Amino acid sequence: MKDQLHIAAQYLAAANMSFLEKKADDSHTNLGFNTDTMCMETYDLSPSGDKLSLNYKQFSLEWTSQSGATSLSLDGKTHGDILQWLQERAQTHLSKNYVYEFHYDLPYTIDADYTFKLTDVRQLEHLRNLRILAQHTLERIINKNALNSPIRIWPHHFDTGIYASLGEGSDVFIGIGMAIPDTISDKHYFYISAYKNGNAILPASYKDLSIGQWIDQGFKGAILPATNLVESESVQFLQEAIDQYKK
Fold first, then answer.
1. pLDDT tens-digit readout, 60-101
2. Three state DSSP letters for the chain
3. In this structure, what are the phi and psi dihedrals at residue 90, rounded to the nearest 5 degrees?
4. Which of the two ends of the chain, N or C, has the fewest CB atoms closer than 10 A to its terminal CB?
């Protein structure tokens, strides 16, 4: 289910790229997560507020416009079916072409016959809860540390993250978020890293964290597997690391 959601999120990224002005930092491609609707969302795709969403509860795509919302269940639909539906929505609501093209590589290869299947409802619920945990955790960290950053999901790596200066006048920037399984961890995990002059740093004399661990193997920073975590634990992990970076 994780891979299918990653693939499905690319439909949203392609919508951003098709209808929004390109930004040098690629931020026009990223996505948000709405914990009320349980949906991953594009930016507004038009002045009237058209939006494409990936519903983590219904396993569907939803196009919202001034005239209402239409949805397409992904279960049993092929990549070709979905592209046709999206092109029809784009022409009907925006009078523009939807283009499914990317300037980055993905770890998946699909063709027109690739078929989505809702194989595990419990796994879908688990992945939904992880996105909610990440969103709420980062909201608390932002508020507690007065950080200036939106919480966004980058479609390439599929992490929920923020990037911000440690404070007014500080030349240290931190990247914080929750990543999907990769070479660092075979589980979803929270991470934090800090940068100065574009180079990753570790605290000069860092202490062991009460939860999570510092690593310096390719990735310089701290990580915490998101297995059986509650929000207070993920917040504690990130705050302890931030406090050390501030010293």
1. 999 999 888 999 999 999 999 999 999 999 999 999 999 999
2. CHHHHHHHHHHHHHHHHHHCCCCCCCHHHCEEEECCCCEEECCCCCCCCCEEEEECCCCEEEEEECCEEEEEECCCCEHHHHHHHHHHHHHHHHCCCCCCCCCCCCCCCCCCCCECCCCCHHHHHHHHHHHHHHHHHHHHHHHHHCCCCCCEEECCCCEEEEEEECCCCCCEEEEEEEECCCCCCCCCEEEEEEEECCEEECCCCCCCCCCCEEEEECEEEEEEECCCCCHHHHHHHHHHHHHHHCC
3. -65, -40
4. C
Structure-block tokens of residue 191: 């991470």
Q: How do the domains of the chain map onto residue ranges?
A: 2-119, 122-245
From 149, 234, 180, 233, select the one nearest 2 (Cα to Cα).
180
Q: Which residues contact 81 (CB under 8 A, 6 or more apart)?
A: none
Token pair in block for residue 69: 């919302």
The token pair that represents 66 in the structure block:
């001034």
Give the model confidence (pLDDT) of 7-30 as tens digits: 999 999 999 999 999 998 888 999
Longest C-alpha distance within the chain, in Å?
59
CB 57 within 8 A of CB 177: no
State the Cα–Cα distance between residues 227 and 103, nearest whole angstrom.
33
Q: What is the pLDDT of residues 177-230, one digit of tens each?
A: 999 999 999 999 999 999 998 899 987 778 899 999 999 988 999 999 999 999
> What distance in Å separates the CA atoms of residue 167 and residue 147, rounded to the nearest whole number?
7
